[in-house]
Amino acid sequence: MALSIRLSRGGSKKRPYYRIVVADARSPRDGKFIEKIGNYNPLLGKDDEKRVVLDAERAKHWLGVGAQPTDRVARFLDAAGVKERAARSNPKKAEPGEKAKERAEERAEKLKAQQEAEAEAANAPAATEEPAADAAEATAE
After folding, report:
1. Angle at 5 between CA 24 and CA 54, to 5 degrees
2. How buried is residue 68: exposed, middle or buried, by Cβ count under 10 Å (0-12/13-18/19+)?
3. DSSP states of 18-83 as a string?
4. Does the CA dihedral 108-110-115-120 come out positive or negative?
5. Within the chain, what is the greatest distance between any pair of CA atoms?
6. CATH architecture entry for 3-80
7. Where does the record place Basic and acidic residues bias (predicted)?
8. pTM of the predicted model, to two decimals?
9. Rounded CA separation 49/45 (Å)
10. Please, which pLDDT band fits residue 135 given cuts at 50, 70 and 90?
11. Per-domain residue ranges of the chain
12. Sequence-separated (6 or more) residues with CB below 8 Å from residue 36
């Protein structure tokens, strides 16, 4: 039987409260479990000691038996000093998708075209003002 140490949700709508339980990996999230080894209340402040309450001794026992913690529970166990959690890295997580990249390229092209048009417009009146200024000087003399 594959064991997992995971969260089981309780509490009402928009007021979550979780039990940290050891359960068969095939059982439903809020279903039957073997043992409750702690609880987690995300509504409390991060510095509150009652936010995560964990029986470290029982957690060590279940880890020794072969129970696998979920990612969130592994974080709690690492904070409690029960089990070291390896840092995970996903460098592609922040990378935009293909459509977003295409839209960014289109925006860059439009911006470049607009800047070129503004540059031409800035150069064109300057070229037409010089002969007009020469003509104005000629009439003034």
Report:
1. 140
2. middle
3. EEEEEEETTS-TTS--SEEEEEE-TTS-TT-TTSEEE-HHHHHHHHHHT-EE-HHHHHHHHHHTSS
4. positive
5. 105
6. 2-Layer Sandwich (3.30)
7. 82-115
8. 0.62
9. 9
10. low
11. 3-80, 94-141
12. 19, 20, 21
Provide the residue type at 127 as one letter. A
pLDDT in tens, 26-81: 999 888 899 999 999 999 999 999 999 999 999 999 999 999 999 999 999 999 99
CA atoms within a 13 Å half-sphere pointing along the CA-CB vector of 46: 1
Question: In this structure, which amino acid lies at residue 108?
Answer: A
Both tokens assigned to 108:
């860059």
Instruction: Report d(CA 129, CA 141) in Å as an integer.
Output: 18
Q: What residue type is 132 in one-letter code? A: A
